[in-house]
Amino acid sequence: MSDVSLTVNGKRVSGSVEDRTLLVHFLREHLGLTGTHVGCDTSQCGACVVHVDGRAVKSCTMLAAQASGSTIVTIEGLANGAELHPVQAAFKEHHGLQCGFCTPGMIMAATDMIARHPQGLDEATVRAELDGNICRCTGYHNIVKAILAAAQTMSKGAKGKAKQAA
Amino acid sequence: MYSVNYHRAASVADAARLLKNGDAKLLSGGMTLIPAMKTRLAAPSDLVDVSRLKELQGVKVSGKTVTIGAATTHYDVSADANLKKACPALAEMASLIGDPAVRYKGTIGGSIANNDPAADYPAALLALGATIITNKREIAADKFFKGLFETALKEGEIITAVSFIAPAKAAYQKFRNPASRYAIVGVFVAKGKDGVRAAITGAGEDGVFRSKEIEAALAKSFDASALDGLKVPAKGLMSDIHASADYRANLIAVMAKRAVAAANA
Description:
Helix content of chain A is about 40%, strand content about 15%. Chain A is α+β, with helices and mostly antiparallel strands. Chain A has a five-stranded mixed sheet with strand order 2-1-5-3-4, sandwiched between helices. The relative contact order of chain A is 0.15. In chain B, about 30% of the residues lie in helices and about 25% in strands. In chain B, strand 4 (about 60) and strand 5 form a beta hairpin.
């Protein structure tokens, strides 16, 4: 058994788990954070993507023990109270989901993708960067639209803030 | 996954000590080992996590010498500003491994220790004539990659870094399997002070190898046209559901041409 302690969505949490416990199972079964999904369970589909120390990783391919000491953000930690995160809002606005199963992973991958491309995103980059996230319903078209729209909104927001600061 | 004991090593020396536990395995990014454990293809008794060791992290460029810590992730290699100047081909190659989430976790040391016959790094390190540095010795890439999933590493030996002299020109071109995204054929060419080296991944029955035919042709002229009409022998190449040996042989010549063109661009 391993004693793990981490910060999840801003809260300190700890627990004692079998060493073989995957991070995704720790999140879902020990913490009840079922927004993070298990899709393929073979690191292909990306439904389980969460941020570990600011990087979007597949929580089905990481042990909870490996994550001990880290700061985790899951889909539940993205919104600011009742106000959706810009990426969540864009998925809603552009209908970037149908069944919704892949959506938490898509959104966590998208926020990371946007953060990694402060100069902006184009369609080809978004499609290439979605390599590790599989959607079986939408044909990706509206997902790509949503991510492009969110990137725009967020860069305007950042510029607005910079102006305010100046 | 079978039951396992997880240890987080405090240093390379500590990892070496912990590796003596039962049937222990090193854990770095875990992008191959954890899926293998989940499907019970691997069942180590103990895992020794070296991924957080500072001494194994980072890219150092000093003059023409590049040294990359074994636990440096593919993302950190792909994004390293100094490496992009010294050897852009390697940074570019790292940006083509797996997907973004995998690149945040997978490491160069883990990739070469595993020596998957379709992995990208073995081709790069073989073509760059790199040196693999372990906690015990230094091993030339030519002697390191032994066969399918087989390396020169001895029991308990830990890769700490890889090092190479930045080549004048280099590039990597990969033809991916459209489903798995692994290389059906990947060709890394490098023109350094000791001549031209071309290493092929994804195709060889014994894993990564250097192509004598391509190297000889490019030694005369490092130009894509030097490979016009080049026949790569199909002997020793894999035939599987993804591609026949003949198809792979042809692809090697095609990808080698593209790689040389990219290196000269």
